[in-house]
From TrEMBL, chain A:
It comes from the Bacteria. This is ABC transporter permease subunit. The chain crosses the membrane at residues 12-30, 100-121, 133-154, 228-253, 273-299. It holds the Pfam family BPD_transp_1. Coiled coil: none annotated. Residues 94-292 form the ABC transmembrane type-1 domain. It is found in: Cell membrane. GO terms for biological process: transmembrane transport. Keywords: Cell membrane, Membrane, Transmembrane, Transmembrane helix, Transport.
Length: 310, 556
């Protein structure tokens, strides 16, 4: 097991280096610089700024310098927000985005697993068709449509919930979490239905039923564990995806998370912020994938054997 | 029998799941009921507490007045700091700010400002003439990267110092004669100089604070953070949460604090116009920074509409690259300009009350109403095109309009594409590029026709016309006319009277329009939603807000 962990962590290093290198050179090669503006920028200013951010050095030297900085955990100063470091910007937005992603995940799992398992228990009946059709709609409905719709109904028409913000007005966390979670709930519903259907046709389930166990016991004690493996495998990347992809929801609801910085950074050619965010999110994706693999192994005896034998 | 038990079990499981869901909803309802107890909106609360909730567009990049550029930054900085003069909130005519009075020498070159005795920094330090001299010295340090350094160039030797031709700052025309007297000597009589003093690049900054957090010319130190920043405006910086809000509170040390009515302003960075409009409707904002164009019609229908549309000192125009072979002939450029039906464009496409523009300078800029021979005249446009060798548009090369990716610009480009096809029978392609790529293409001259906009920094025709001098960084058309340069750079500054000066500008403007390296399209408007409780917030062509004047009328 430790060998497995170590090898996975070692694999992560070249992946990260490739990500850093590719992003660094793509960002620097992109047309338009961080300091170009609508109004002409005097050459004196361009010179001063490039010197300050070391952009006057050859690219390879900038690259090596940057690698040295991130090895020390320093993502450098933001170009667009003078006086703010990239670390500071990430740390300001991360807790908020993480909280949003966490609530969204809870909603996604609750709704997704319940409706998926319910559907799998009675396939090809209304109990299957209704939630699965809804799931299909949920997958297809983009958050930039669902969010404003929810706001119009619950915020503006019914005046039940705040239309924007995060932690400013009580209840303002509900709509963003639902908006972000819904798409994932739909995915999870379909995954858990598929997983459960497969498991429910297995011999060991038949044996359990033949022993005369109650159906609830069969489902909860025997089937769920195997049936939810695809869901668990999905959760790791999903959580990373929630963190990285919260941009749309953060914009709709005016939430000061990291997603907004990421997209703004790209438009502004804020090199250090783009790089910092990319590296940070890549690391998160690697970590969450690893965690979900570990849980899958724990849930699946076949994999457990493979890991301990291999 | 087995089937029945299965159904029973199933229903049990379902019941359990439903119970779980109920629990979740209950939890949310609890949260809700907590919110219902406090059902007042921001606006309702603000009207009672004197807190203005202000939609401020994007997150400010910096609150350092000598680094910042942009409208959101300007809003916050103008609450925190104040220049020598303020402006009347309606007419924008200069009125006393930090300076209680000033004298102008007969030749119009020497301004002597009397700084009021009770001018104070927010930490209680007194504000002196030396503070201005030091601040302007800082504004002219190239290392600082001040994009607005040129706002100081009317001051004698300021440009030479900035560009390094002069190293002795004492030769620059800003002197403190004593604690309360500041003497400013200009290169030429500059009638708009008082206007400039209300621009943040000429605001005073607190030396001790800046030096506490780094070198004077160091960019991006922490002196502008909440808790650090010391200003001299009607408000002080209380909180700055990135991407969430900036909270400013009334400054008790401000010289005129007795006449400041608001207790607090909350600046909310809302970069999504649609979200901003929804927040306004939900009572979370007093004032929005904008309004999506497709909502204008609906707001026009409302009685006592919160929408305000007012003229804005800016021109939407197309640049023509005069180095492109088939665009070198001025007749062709005029033909293009004459074949645009601007009235139709603003009424059917932009719909925001924009004013069709037939000259570069917006009408009424410092009493200047440019005359123009340009009008919508398809007949004459066809004749000009034919004279230039393209009868009925025959063989006219396919020409490209470049614009930065934006739905509004696209609609305008398509409309103009159709007008030129219909009126001149020429084929136009439209090409969009992402903002920074577009900026690169435009400054490199890699375009044929390109969308542009110019928002005035100060109210004077000079700000619109000096763009097109040969070496002007914002010219970008390749057009160069030495006679024009002379008018703008030499003759206009030397004029004795306002009337004479405007005549020179008219001459230059006519020259520009005859050659037509730019096609003026419309004069901008600012479109905002404003809650009826907000008083003394008059419109002006710079769309500047003077927060010290604003008060909120509470209906309770």
């Amino acid at each position: 097991m430790i060998k497995f962990l170590l090898s996975r962590l070692l694999q992560a290093v070249p992946v990260l280096i490739i990500v850093i290198t590719a992003t660094f050179f793509i960002v620097h090669a992109a047309p338009g610089g961080p300091f170009s503006a609508d109004k002409a920028v005097p050459p004196e200013v361009i010179q001063a700024l490039e010197a300050q951010y070391k952009l006057d050095q050859p690219v390879w030297r900038q690259y090596l310098g940057y690698l040295g900085d991130i090895a020390r955990g320093d993502f450098g100063p933001s170009f667009k927000y003078p006086g703010r470091s990239v670390n500071e910007l990430i740390m300001a937005g991360l807790p908020i985005t993480a909280e949003l992603a966490f609530y969204a995940m809870i909603i996604a799992i609750l709704i997704g697993v319940l409706s998926g398992v319910g559907a799998a228990m009675r396939p090809n009946t209304l109990q299957d068709y209704v939630p699965m059709t809804l799931a299909m709609i949920g997958i297809c409905m983009p958050s930039f449509l669902l969010g404003p719709l929810l706001v119009l109904v619950f915020g503006i028409q019914l005046e039940l919930l705040p239309v924007s913000g995060w932690g400013d007005i009580p209840g303002d966390k509900i709509l963003p979490s639902i908006t972000l979670g819904t798409g994932y709930a739909a995915f999870i519903a379909r995954l858990s239905r598929g997983g459960m259907l497969e498991i429910l046709s297995q011999d060991y389930i038949r044996t359990a039923r033949a022993k005369g166990l109650r159906e609830t016991t069969v489902i909860i004690k025997h089937a769920l564990r195997g049936g939810l493996i695809p869901v668990v495998a999905f959760l790791g990347p999903a959580f990373a995806g929630l963190l990285a992809g919260s941009f749309v929801v953060e914009t709709i609801f005016q939430i000061p998370g990291i997603g907004r910085f990421y997209v703004q950074a790209a438009f502004n050619r804020d090199y250090t912020l783009i790089l910092g965010m990319t590296i940070f999110l890549s690391t998160l994706i690697i970590i969450f994938n690893l965690i979900s693999d570990l849980i899958s192994i724990w849930l699946n005896p076949k994999l457990r054997d493979e890991v301990s034998n291999g | 029998m087995k089937e029945i038990s299965l159904i029973l079990n199933l229903s049990e499981l379902l019941k359990k799941s439903i119970n779980l869901l109920k629990l979740v909803f209950l939890a949310q309802l609890l949260l809700l009921s907590a919110s219902c107890g406090d059902s007042q909106t921001n606006v309702e609360k603000g009207n009672i507490n004197g807190t203005l909730y202000w939609g401020n567009g994007t997150e400010p990049q910096s609150l350092d007045p000598q680094i910042a550029t942009g409208v959101p930054e300007h809003h916050v900085i103008s609450a925190l700091m104040e220049g020598l003069v303020l402006k009347d909130r309606k007419t924008l005519l200069p009125k006393p700010g930090v300076a209680e009075s000033w004298d102008i020498s007969d030749d119009g070159r020497v301004y002597t400002f009397k700084i009021r005795d009770n001018a104070r920094w927010s930490n209680g330090d007194s504000l002196t003439a030396n503070d201005f001299v030091w601040s302007w010295w800082r504004a002219l340090q190239p290392a600082l990267g001040n994009l607005y350094a040129y706002m100081l160039f009317p001051i004698e030797n300021a440009q030479e110092y900035y560009e390094g031709a002069l190293t002795d700052f004492s030769k620059v025309g800003a002197k403190a004669l004593d604690e309360n007297t500041l003497q400013v000597t200009l290169n030429h009589p500059t009638p708009y100089f008082l206007q400039l003093l209300d621009h943040y690049s000429l605001f005073p900054v607190h030396k001790e604070t800046i030096e506490k957090f780094g070198a004077a010319d160091e960019r991006g130190t922490r002196w502008t953070y909440a808790g650090n920043l010391v200003g001299n405006g009607a408000f002080t910086l209380d909180e700055w949460e990135i991407n969430r809000k900036i909270l400013v509170k009334k400054n008790k040390n401000y010289w005129d604090s007795d006449n400041v009515d608001l207790n607090e302003i909350v600046f909310l960075p809302i970069d999504n116009m649609v979200t901003e409009e929804r927040m306004f409707r939900a009572g979370q904002l007093h004032v929005t920074s904008s309004l999506p164009a497709d909502k204008i019609a609906a707001y026009k229908e409302i009685d006592d509409s919160p929408m305000r549309i007012s003229p804005y000192l800016g021109t939407y125009f197309y640049r023509i690259n005069v180095d492109v072979p088939h665009l070198q002939d001025p007749r062709i450029r005029r033909a293009l300009a004459m074949a645009i039906d601007r009235v139709n464009l603003v009424e059917k496409i932009t719909k925001g009350g924009q004013i069709p523009a037939y000259a570069m300078t917006p009408p009424g800029t410092m009493g200047y109403f440019p005359e123009s021979s340009l009008q919508y005249d398809p007949e004459r446009a066809r004749k000009l095109l034919s004279d230039a060798g393209y009868p009925n548009g025959k063989d006219f090369p396919i020409t490209e309009i470049l614009y930065n990716t934006n739905e509004g610009h696209r609609k305008i480009a398509i409309a103009i594409q159709e007008m030129w096809k219909k009126n001149l029978n020429i084929d136009i392609q439209i090409l969009n590029q992402e903002w920074k790529v577009y900026l690169d293409s435009e400054s490199a001259g890699e375009y044929q026709i390109s969308r542009a906009g110019w928002i005035g920094d100060y109210v004077d025709p000079n700000n619109f016309l000096d763009m097109f001098i040969c070496e002007g960084g914002n010219n970008r058309t390749g057009w160069c006319n030495e006679e024009y340069d002379d008018l703008i750079l030499k003759i206009a500054p030397a004029t004795k009277s306002h009337k004479e000066r405007l005549e020179i500008f008219q001459k230059a403007e006519t020259m520009l329009l005859d050659d037509m390296p730019v096609i003026p399209i419309y004069t901008y408007t600012s479109i905002q939603l404003i809650d009826s409780a907000v008083k003394n917030f008059d419109s002006n062509i710079m769309n500047h807000a003077y927060y010290k004047d604003i008060y909120l009328e509470s209906l309770n």
